[in-house]
Specification:
By secondary structure, this protein is α/β, with parallel strands linked by helices. The chain contains six helices and eleven strands. It has a domain of 59 residues. It is elongated, with a radius of gyration of 20 Å.
């Protein structure tokens, strides 16, 4: 069963830290953002050891207080060890150059990712999970993406249309001529889109 839903300015595929941060920042700038994450949260992931400069990103995203209140372990430095264990060096964040604040966090990714994704939703992004992007089609007037859901009534495919290129940024679309050309075209469109968004 398929149906067409509202158009979006941007579709973000993946709700990890990068996807959540991207969706949040775009929503903060007034874009209509859809974020698709195939796994339900929380889910296990390796990591994560933060560095103090991450705090500036959290502040920009507006999620600094949520991160601080999530119960993560405070981190004031880091030890770097060679693969053979023959040498190690401790980095004290308090004496590191250009460190805005000498404390950050050692986070568990399941909770860290959940906090960031929840914030993206609160900022205004339309977050769907579990939802998997299964195909994308380029056309002269935008991009159509198929989203797969395993719902209570069975499998559902949504057709999601993005108009951002011609309508909001003036970036010209070039539909891929073949499956072989698709990765190169996608990469080029991503560069143009990033530049257009950065330009405001």
């Amino acid at each position: 069963m398929g149906r067409t839903v509202d158009s979006y300015d941007v579709i973000v595929v993946g709700g990890g830290p990068g996807g959540s941060a991207t969706a949040t920042r775009l929503a903060q700038h007034g874009r209509r953002v859809l974020l698709l994450e195939r796994d339900p949260f929380p889910r296990f992931h390796i990591g994560e050891s933060q560095l103090p400069w991450s705090d500036e990103i959290f502040r920009t995203l507006g999620v600094e207080q949520a991160i601080a209140g999530a119960g993560f372990v405070d981190k004031w430095g880091a030890t770097f060890i060679t693969s053979d264990g023959g040498a190690e060096q401790y980095a004290d964040f308090a004496v590191a150059p250009q460190t805005p604040r000498p404390q950050t966090y050692q986070v568990s990714r399941d909770e860290f990712d959940r906090v960031l994704l929840t914030h993206a939703r609160a900022t205004g992004a339309d977050v769907r999970q579990p939802a998997q992007a299964v195909d994308v089609t380029f056309a002269a007037d935008g991009v159509t993406m198929q989203q797969f859901n395993e719902g209570a009534g069975g499998q559902v495919v949504f057709h999601l249309h993005v108009h951002i290129i011609p309508r909001k940024t003036g970036v010209a679309m070039k539909p891929p001529a073949s499956a072989k050309e698709k990765p190169d075209v996608l990469a080029e469109q991503a560069k143009k889109l990033a530049a257009a968004i950065a330009a405001g």
